Amino acid sequence: MTSQLFIRLKLHPLAAEGELAALERQVFDFLGYQWAPILANFLHIIIVILGLFGTIQYRPRYIVVYAIWTAIWVTWNIFIICFYLEVGGLSKDSELLTFNISRHQSWWSENGPGCVRKEASMSGIKGLDSHSYISVIGCALEYRYIEVMHSSFQILIALVGFVYACYVVSVFTEEEDSFDFIGGFDPFPLYHVNEKPTNLLFKQTYLPA
């Protein structure tokens, strides 16, 4: 019981940090219309909640699912890093993350720290007050590096979560094995309290006629 209480007390800050990081990333992916990361972030939030529920309710299978998902989540974030660093023939200007539905890029590409957008009126369209972005200048940090830092932070949290999930499963398994050894799940007790002592049985057997 002490180890379970220790695990639950330690899990809440870790789960809260992971949830906040995923929600923060989800907001900016929504602003940038990045549909593939949006779906991945949504699944990640669901699995984190499932892992937290499994720890609180003593469900090791849910924690195993969370551990498996963390491996997938690390792989996904490594892909995002390779995408924005254009590793292996990938291009950050492609529409891969938007499912080729739109030409949107990361929200940070136009709203990063220090970025200034220069606008110009669209030519050839009469009576329409629309604008088109020409360039973005003055960015203190290029947007792809911001996305890489986001993914790197997610990988760090996922690795910590994976190690902690394995520890929780091992603790739960050891406690279940020790409880079975004591006989906690045995429906038939080994000794009956109401049985008569053996010395009384012998006295009844040798009573004179």
TrEMBL record:
A Gene Ontology cellular-component term: plasma membrane
Pfam family for this entry, one: NKAIN
Transmembrane stretches, start-end: 35-56, 63-87, 153-172
Keywords on record: Cell membrane, Membrane, Transmembrane, Transmembrane helix
Entry annotated with the keyword Iron-sulfur: no
Bilayer topology: Multi-pass membrane protein
GO BP annotation list: regulation of sodium ion transport
Subcellular location: Cell membrane
Family statement drawn from the similarity comment of this UniProt entry: Belongs to the NKAIN family.
UniProt-recorded name of the protein: Sodium/potassium-transporting ATPase subunit beta-1-interacting protein
Species in which this protein is naturally found: Aquila chrysaetos chrysaetos
Chain's gene name: NKAIN4
